[in-house]
């Protein structure tokens, strides 16, 4: 490896010294510890990262979007320049295959460039202009101009299951940097070396493009203390998190208890229900079982969109469907999980599921890793434990008695990231009843597909009502996610010399604006 | 009065019986109790209002915008039909003058019609469509279509200082009903009769336009119990509040402690700083004093945008300015406050201010009601008590030593609804330094004006960082406020028959949509 790792936090353009609690990366395939040792940031280093971010915010937040876009593109280039070193380290730390690592790297760099394009375009700022009418009676109308501006420094927690696309330079970091917010990243203990390599790439890009020190820091912590201290730093104005429900709700409590409470965008848990309606089951049970098997076992089931519960109407086709899914699961080769903690948690939840009296074990895979379980809708609705996410390659098939049972079960769902219906034209009535329920329960509603493999675009919604996320109003993926780090400000009767370019009469940014109620990219004068 | 008042809660289309703790309206001018007695809602009535709202949400949330708009317009008409009865009752309960009552009624009905127009137009839903590319490599691109949908039933607390425009059919209620969310209103003890009259108008409009029962309820409570129980109801998905910081933060805690936490939009307190830069002070000290006097004493200073702290550079002009402002305040006739609670709180805060050793009393009005106080920037920055809102007709002038002192003071501000700068061209450098600080601190930044008299339009931002509000990401006034009651949902590969009209190829709603990155009101095919 040509890039050397130090095991220290990155604080602004410098490195931490932290000598307290420490940990190392571990190869999940061999159980062997990887060099170097990662030392947790000191309290003083947390404070310094926050103070640097506060200071960087003053200049970074008003930097031209073109310069911020240049920074984002430089981050992507520096990540790509890590080449095989990054692939090798991430494979060693996570047991993920090279194809997955390379695909995730492509997505990560693609996201950075997508946000660079978005802010260069500039129309995301939702500019609204109402021009003055001094002669209006009884009162003159003032000139009012509003736009979205960055809200302040942001703390982002790396996700265990996306060491690149949701970590040091992942979705939340890219959208926050694009919005104009400095970011402090809290590394995940599952892939500290991957984090350091990407962190160094971000710092190199920041230096190269002349960004202020403090626009980015990366802190290690051997326990929750560093992350919680970051969320408590007075300069911080928002938090991004992807992980467990316990972790997310703990951060929500810390953020709400601050003297100045701040929003937490935590993506926490989802069972991503799939409803297979009777005609779809009859006509496509085999193909659906095959597709579902791929969605349940891909990435060892460690996706937040993995389908965890499948509703079908009991009968001959349901039996065939369950038998085929079970057979496919039984043939699934074992696959190492991301780390020992996830593996242990999965084993515990999977074994709890299998031991319930109302649950039948359909298949357990060659080495009891993957799993298909079976229960009835009545039992599922009665037992809240059956609604909980089992993070790993297993799924629960729920047998319903009829259409009414399917609908009752849909109403009993908690908030979800996704909800899917498989339907043929002849299933129309049930589908038409289900889709509005799904829209109330989930962030993304899918027809005749599977929820894994999320498309990253302008229309993406990766969010959903609690407990899928802490804040169902926004998305963590796609261009819309930039608004979670922004808030609107209105300028009243402000002369042009004091207005941001986005709000000036001539429309120098050439963006779409709402002017006196009409949408237009044209200048006012 | 031709409309008779019963003193009972309105629950769906029926009336409550609540026989527990009770209260009455009081005429602040005479101290006399007004008929009838208002009885607090029972626990069972709170539950029923929530259940009815949950049930109404199922049909109301998918009702055509045209029908919802018809309901909003009918509400406005029924409020207008209350005629003199409403004016008379509100004057008796609040001591507000008829002109103010009529103006507020016009604003209230104007807001209802503005939201009716907004949802008929339909473009607010932020539709984003990305069409499928089945031949894309390595993976086909799915069809993705997103839009904003209503989030669920909402609880709105009436504001003491806006018995119409921020109460039973005020801003938050109009925007929530427009978004597609049923509303349960918690009445304010300061104007229960006004609330009942408007509540009856809303119910009449709902019946007339065929809205589902539960789309609206109005609950009375003699203490905080009823409001907090409403916030705890499992069906509720959002809360709107305008009032004190103590009240707002209490509701934030209740909402965060729910099994499913929900957002609270609380507008709480703001001192609305005004910075008068040296050249503006020299050239316009007299005119600014006159304008400021109007902004401080209008409505007896009971506006959330009342200027509570004025920064000027010490010197001859500052002395003249303070003397003139003091003289105007001394000439100000006494004006009854909205209710005994507000009056007592004002007297207490005003007297605390006047008794501080670093504060000088400049003027106290004829009967010691209005007030101008004076301190130094150094003293102001040291004493957090001087940063607190004094709700009523008083203001604090802060003497700065120089431009640096002005800027330091701006940085020391908490979050505000508004921040104002008075500047001449020659003040350019200081103004250019101040405006970005104001943008960080406030929701609305005003140049050479006063913050009272908010314009209600597309560009309005009535919000701001904590503690001005609990959630600085949204506004409570203007068309943008509708988004606080909405969240995005994405439909993937959904056939046209299962898509909302807003997302269909033909664009039957003829709205502005983002299609494959381009903004257009045209159909796709």
What can you tell me about this protein's structure?
The structure is a homodimer. Chain A has 14 helices and 21 strands. Chain A has about 525 residues and is of the alpha/beta class. Chain A has two domains: about 10-270 and about 475-485, Aldehyde Dehydrogenase, Chain A, domain 1 (3-Layer(aba) Sandwich); about 275-445, Aldehyde Dehydrogenase, Chain A, domain 2 (3-Layer(aba) Sandwich). In chain A, helix 13 runs parallel beside helix 14. The mean pLDDT of chain A is about 95. Strand 19 of chain A pairs parallel with strand 18 (about 440-445) of chain B.
List keywords for this structure.
homodimer, 525 residues, Aldehyde Dehydrogenase, Chain A, domain 2, Aldehyde Dehydrogenase, Chain A, domain 1, 5-stranded mixed sheet, 14 helices, 21 strands, alpha/beta
Biggest interface, chains and residues, is: A-B, 71 and 72 residues
Under CATH, the homologous superfamily of the largest domain in chain A reads Aldehyde Dehydrogenase, Chain A, domain 1
CATH domain class name of the largest domain in chain A: Alpha Beta
Give the helix level of chain A as a range of percent. 25-40%
The number of distinct β-strands of chain A equals 21
What is the arithmetic mean of pLDDT of chain A?
96
CATH topology of the largest domain in chain A: Aldehyde Dehydrogenase, Chain A, domain 1
Rounded to an integer, what's the Rg of chain A over CA atoms?
25 Å
Strand percent estimate of chain A: 15-25%
Given as residue ranges, the uncertain stretches of chain A (5+ residues, pLDDT < 50) are none
Multimerization status? homodimer
The count of domains of chain A is 2
Largest sheet of chain A, if any? Answer: 7 strands, mixed
């Amino acid at each position: 490896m040509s890039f050397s790792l130090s095991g220290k936090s990155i604080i602004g353009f410098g490195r931490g010294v932290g000598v307290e609690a420490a940990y190392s990366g571990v190869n999940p395939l061999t159980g062997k510890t990887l060099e170097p040792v990662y030392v947790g940031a000191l309290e003083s280093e947390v404070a310094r990262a926050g103070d640097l971010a506060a200071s960087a915010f003053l200049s970074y937040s008003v930097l031209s979007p073109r310069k911020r876009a240049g920074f984002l593109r430089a981050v992507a280039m520096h990540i790509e320049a890590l080449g095989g070193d990054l692939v090798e380290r991430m494979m060693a730390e996570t047991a993920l295959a090279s194809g997955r690592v390379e695909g995730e790297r492509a997505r990560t760099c693609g996201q950075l460039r997508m946000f660079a394009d978005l802010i260069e375009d500039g129309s995301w700022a939702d500019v609204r202009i109402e021009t003055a009418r001094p002669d209006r009676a009884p009162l003159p109308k003032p000139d009012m101009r509003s736009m979205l501006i960055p809200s302040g420094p942001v703390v982002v927690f790396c996700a265990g299951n996306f060491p690149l696309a949701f970590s040091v330079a992942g979705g939340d970091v890219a959208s926050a940097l694009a919005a104009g917010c400095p970011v402090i990243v809290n590394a995940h203990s599952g892939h500290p070396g991957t984090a350091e390599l990407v962190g160094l790439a971000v710092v190199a890009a920041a230096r190269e493009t002349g960004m202020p020190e403090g626009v980015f820091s990366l802190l290690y912590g051997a326990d929750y203390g560093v992350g919680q201290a970051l969320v408590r730093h007075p300069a911080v104005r928002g938090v991004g998190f992807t992980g467990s429900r316990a972790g997310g709700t703990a951060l929500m409590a810390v953020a709400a208890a601050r003297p100045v409470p701040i929003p937490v965008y935590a993506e926490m848990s989802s069972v991503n229900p799939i409803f297979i309606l009777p005609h779809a089951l009859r006509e496509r049970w085999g193909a659906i079982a095959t597709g579902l098997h791929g969605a349940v076992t891909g990435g060892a089931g460690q996706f937040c969109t993995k389908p965890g519960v499948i509703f079908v109407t009991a009968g001959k086709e349901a039996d065939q469907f369950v038998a085929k899914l079970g057979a496919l699961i039984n043939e699934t080769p074992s696959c190492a999980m991301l780390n020992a903690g996830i593996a242990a948690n999965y084993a515990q939840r999977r074994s709890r599921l299998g031991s319930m009296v109302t649950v039948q074990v359909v298949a357990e895979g060659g080495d009891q890793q993957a799993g298909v379980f079976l229960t009835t809708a009545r039992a599922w609705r009665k037992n809240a434990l059956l609604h909980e996410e089992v993070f790993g390659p297993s799924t629960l098939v729920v047998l319903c008695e009829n259409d009414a049972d399917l609908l009752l079960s849909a109403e009993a769902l908690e908030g979800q990231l996704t909800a899917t219906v498989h339907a043929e034209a002849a299933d129309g009535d049930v589908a038409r009843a289900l889709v509005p329920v799904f829209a109330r329960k989930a962030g993304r509603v899918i027809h005749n597909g599977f929820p894994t493999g999320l498309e990253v675009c302008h229309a993406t919604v990766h969010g959903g009502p609690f407990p899928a996320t802490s804040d169902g109003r926004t998305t963590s993926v796609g261009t819309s996610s930039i608004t979670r780090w922004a808030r609107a400000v209105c300028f009243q009767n402000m002369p042009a010399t004091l207005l941001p370019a986005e709000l000036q009469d001539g429309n120098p940014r050439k963006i779409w604006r709402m002017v006196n109620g009409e949408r237009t990219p044209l200048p006012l004068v």
